[in-house]
Design goal:
Layout lengths: L3 E5 L8 H14 L4 E6 L4 H5 L11 H5 L5 H4 L1 E2 L4 E3 L4 H10 L7 H7 L7 E6 L5 H9 L2 E7 L4 H18 L5 E8 L6 H14 L12 H5 L15 H13 L6 H6 L4 H8 L7
Helix pairs in contact: 1-11, 6-7, 8-9, 9-13
The structure holds adenosine-5'-diphosphate (ADP) and magnesium ion.
The site of magnesium ion has 5 residues, from α1.
């Protein structure tokens, strides 16, 4: 096997990158895929959400960046997925990285030997467009862009697409934008549907799976060190992530799962109707 590598990126914080990474990864693992998730954010939220104390890790991704540990030696085996953990030391490593030749390619190079061991690798990017995120985009085959559907979301997406354009020209010609993941979706408001429709049409980006509804359960799950999907929770948002996982693995998504995600035909037509007409 050769893993397909997804970077989950949006330089805006709090849009659901980490939550999407973890729950899509868990959805794929549930379907039998061998999944590695890489925490590329010095805040270590992904690491923490899986039940690890980011400050007690030795070695972590930081050690790989400064050349102290090979990437495979940092991997932790969580029950759901394998993890390359990070902590705040990665912020210091980022500074070291800046002065290195080929700095954009470090993660790509380190991941190369691991690709045969996994079906899928997810890279959870930091809320910035700095050299760490460029490393994530350079190492990836595809980008998933989580967006919270609110006013001005499109400004962030526009800047991110500019950066992705640079990466495609300079370090990763074959990088593909897989599409948007609509997070913390409030299906009751017309506003969120309109914002999503505008994003899809404006940037001609596909929507991956159904929008992920808001649920307080997402905020609670890090405290038990498991993802909502991995814990078998059936709130609509978890069902949406299961549908996204199936779609990315090219598996059929049945109507039952779409309905469980709370994504109705009427909403779908309202959001995708016009966008689908454009070739
Ligand atoms: N569908 C959702 N419903 C409610 N809260 C969510 C949902 N998705 C994410 N959250 C919460 O929003 C916050 C930010 O999400 P997170 O995934 O950490 O974003 P990012 O990685 O982009 O900074 C977290 O507290 C998370 O638990
Ligand atoms: Mg995050």
């Amino acid at each position: 096997m050769t893993a397909r590598v997804y970077a989950v990126a949006n330089q805006k914080g709090g849009v659901g990158k980490t939550t999407s990474t973890l729950n899509i990864a868990a959805g794929m693992a549930e379907l039998g895929a061998a999944v590695l998730v890489v925490d590329l954010d010095p805040q270590g939220c992904l690491t923490f959400s899986l039940g690890y104390d980011p400050d007690e890790l030795e070695p972590s991704l930081n050690d790989t960046v400064v050349g102290r540990a090979a990437l495979p030696d940092t991997i932790l085996q969580h029950g759901e997925v394998d993890v390359v953990p990070s902590n705040i030391d990665l912020a210091g490593a980022e500074v070291t990285l800046l002065s290195r030749t080929g700095r954009e390619y470090l993660l790509r190079g380190e991941l190369a030997d691991l690709l045969d061991s996994y079906d899928v690798v997810f890279i959870d990017c930091a809320p910035s467009l700095g050299v760490l995120t460029i490393n994530g985009l350079t190492a990836a085959d595809e980008v998933l862009i989580p967006v919270q559907c609110e006013t001005l979301s499109h400004r962030g997406v526009s800047q991110l697409l500019d950066t992705i354009g640079d990466v495609k020209r300079l370090t990763n010609r074959t990088l593909n934008v897989r599409g948007l993941v609509a997070t913390m979706f409030d299906a009751r408001t017309r506003h969120s549907r309109e914002v999503l429709r505008d994003l899809i049409a404006r940037y001609d980006l596909p929507l991956v799976g159904p929008p992920v509804r808001k649920s307080i359960r997402f905020a609670e799950s890090p405290t038990v060190g498991a993802t909502l999907v991995g814990a078998g929770t059936n709130v609509p948002g978890a069902s949406a992530y299961r549908a996204i996982a199936r779609e990315l693995l090219d598996l059929p998504v049945d109507e039952e799962l779409t309905a469980a995600a709370g994504w109705t035909d009427e909403q779908r037509d309202e959001v995708l109707g016009v966008a689908e007409l454009t070739p």
